[in-house]
């Protein structure tokens, strides 16, 4: 259904599969999206699709289809009348019964007219791409529609969405970046709706009827879009992002406690609220958790009592929600599938770094500490064998130096040492002769190095020596990584 050479986002594809009924939950304890991820990975393993990795996380984000495979798929699709494609480059003649329609161009033709006339009979899926926005059929005519995807189609000067409430069979509705400012109140009629994506639109508030969508599993909104009271009624929700909570909507935290099926929660608070901790205790299926706090001062210890679920994959608490110390649950036996960790820990010792280094699946680490302000001035060592899968590492406000021993971080490609404090008490750890060798040469996959050294507790000459040592190490590295080293 996607144009040739399209980058197809994995999550978008899986949600469409679910809406079409292609995914059946045969095993107890497995939800449809997890089964869809298994199918997606199978297609990669069988070379049917080509994986595309997120450059920041190192995880598969989307895919492409090779031209020859796409030709084969379209051939089978035409034989089975599976998908009708209308585009400038490649069109299939519409039959009298259209099950799935992909509109990819904007040229009017008798073929296009015939296709849109045939939609009302049996169409289950309609995907429209921006060049074909002028050919959008009246949504109210597609009574059996399950999937409607209009990403990037500009609807700012049309009222075509007013008929959405008539699509009673709709399971999937993607209105991403359509320049719309509101949804019709009748959207509450879509009692089978599972996915609603209205991101990148100037929508200030969702209709109050949204809370009647009891089968909704995925709700994606912008932080500028408010949700109405009653969000706790959506007890099937597995994904909610990005939810903004301010002083006027603080009661939503209590409603979140009812969403016990949540697997992904992205939330932004104007200021920290202790009620959130009690809410998180009840969300035991969380796999991805983002917590942002808009205003200073930073909160220290607010999450200390929280214990993450064992299946946690991603945790991002930014730099304002601080843990007092490294949580005891951050260890390889408790969170074995943790791949992304972005936290601030006020006090960090060598034993804590060693524990982090044993996390078997960790690919991204952004760690901020406050050791210098606590008077902990010794440097830290990244030991051999630690961080076996780490690809991206950000150490913030660490006391100089951090030494990387041979065998540590074998897959690390990007290293950032921001606001790294240079202390005289920590000199001489890197090499036997008291030099400033941090062991960058021991990181065999390194491609990018950034460092910002703050001249605190050191003379300007010593700071420049540290900068020179890092610059020299980067230049001497066999990979010749990109590097930017600065001192202030």
Largest sheet: 19 strands, parallel
Please state roughly what percent of the residues sit in beta strands, choosing from under 5%, 5-15%, 15-25%, 25-35%, 35-45% or over 45%: 15-25%
CATH class wording of the domain at 229-358: Alpha Beta
Return the structural class: alpha/beta
Rounded average pLDDT? 88
The CATH topology of the domain at 229-358, please?
A: Leucine-rich repeat, LRR (right-handed beta-alpha superhelix)
**Principal-axis shape:** globular
Write out the CATH superfamily name of the domain at 229-358: Ribonuclease Inhibitor
Number of strands: 24
**Total helix count?**
8
Low-confidence spans: 428-434
Give me the Rg, rounded. Answer: 26 Å
How many angstroms separate the termini? 53 Å
The helix content, as a percent range, equals 10-25%
Would you identify the CATH architecture of the domain at 229-358?
A: Alpha-Beta Horseshoe
Brief write-up:
With 488 residues, this protein is α/β, with parallel strands linked by helices. It contains eight helices and 24 strands. Among the domains are: 8-63, no CATH class; 229-358, Ribonuclease Inhibitor (Leucine-rich repeat, LRR (right-handed beta-alpha superhelix), Alpha-Beta Horseshoe); 371-488.
């Amino acid at each position: 259904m996607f144009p040739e050479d399209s980058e197809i986002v994995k999550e978008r594809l899986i949600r469409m599969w679910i809406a079409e009924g292609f995914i059946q939950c045969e095993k107890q304890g497995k939800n449809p999206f997890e089964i869809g991820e298994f199918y997606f990975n199978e297609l990669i393993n069988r070379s049917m699709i080509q994986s595309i990795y997120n450059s920041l996380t190192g995880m598969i984000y989307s895919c492409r289809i090779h031209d020859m495979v796409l030709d084969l798929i379209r051939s089978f699709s035409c034989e089975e009348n599976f998908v009708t494609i209308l585009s400038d480059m490649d069109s299939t003649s519409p039959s009298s019964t259209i099950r799935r329609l992909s509109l990819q161009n904007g040229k009017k033709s008798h073929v296009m007219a015939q296709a849109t006339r045939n939609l009302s009979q049996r169409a289950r899926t309609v995907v429209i791409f921006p060049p074909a926005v002028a050919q959008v059929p009246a949504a109210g005519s597609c009574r059996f529609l399950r999937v409607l995807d209009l990403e990037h189609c500009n609807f700012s000067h049309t009222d075509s969405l007013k008929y959405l409430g008539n699509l009673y069979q709709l399971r999937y509705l993607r209105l991403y970046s359509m320049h719309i400012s509101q949804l019709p109140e009748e959207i509450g009629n879509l009692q089978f709706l599972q996915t609603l994506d209205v991101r990148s639109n100037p929508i200030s508030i969702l209709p109050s009827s949204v809370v009647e969508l009891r089968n909704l599993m995925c709700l994606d909104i912008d932080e500028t879009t408010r949700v109405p009271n009653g969000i706790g009624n959506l007890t099937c929700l597995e994904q909610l992002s990005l939810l903004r909570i301010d002083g006027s909507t603080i009661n939503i935290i209590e409603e979140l406690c009812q969403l016990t099926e949540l697997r992904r929660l992205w939330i932004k608070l104007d200021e920290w609220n202790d009620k959130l901790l009690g809410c998180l205790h009840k969300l035991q299926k969380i796999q991805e958790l983002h917590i942002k706090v808009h205003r200073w001062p930073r909160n220290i210890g607010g999450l200390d009592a929280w214990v993450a679920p064992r299946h946690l994959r991603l945790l991002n608490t930014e730099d304002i929600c601080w843990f007092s110390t490294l949580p005891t649950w951050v260890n390889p036996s408790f969170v074995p599938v943790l791949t992304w960790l972005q936290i601030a820990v006020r006090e960090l010792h060598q034993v804590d770094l060693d524990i982090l280094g044993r996390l078997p699946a960790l690919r991204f680490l952004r760690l901020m500490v406050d050791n210098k302000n606590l008077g902990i001035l010794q440097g830290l060592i990244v030991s051999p064998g630690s961080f076996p899968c780490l690809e991206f590492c950000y150490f913030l406000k660490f006391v100089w130096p951090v030494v990387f021993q041979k065998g540590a971080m074998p897959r690390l490609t990007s290293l950032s040492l921001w606001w790294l404090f240079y202390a005289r008490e920590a000199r001489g750890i890197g090499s036997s002769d008291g030099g400033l060798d941090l062991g960058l040469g021991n990181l065999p996959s390194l491609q990018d190095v950034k460092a910002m050294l703050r001249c605190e507790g050191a003379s300007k000459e010593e700071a420049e020596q540290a900068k020179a040592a890092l610059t020299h190490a980067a230049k001497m590295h066999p990979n010749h990584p990109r590097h930017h080293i600065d001192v202030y």
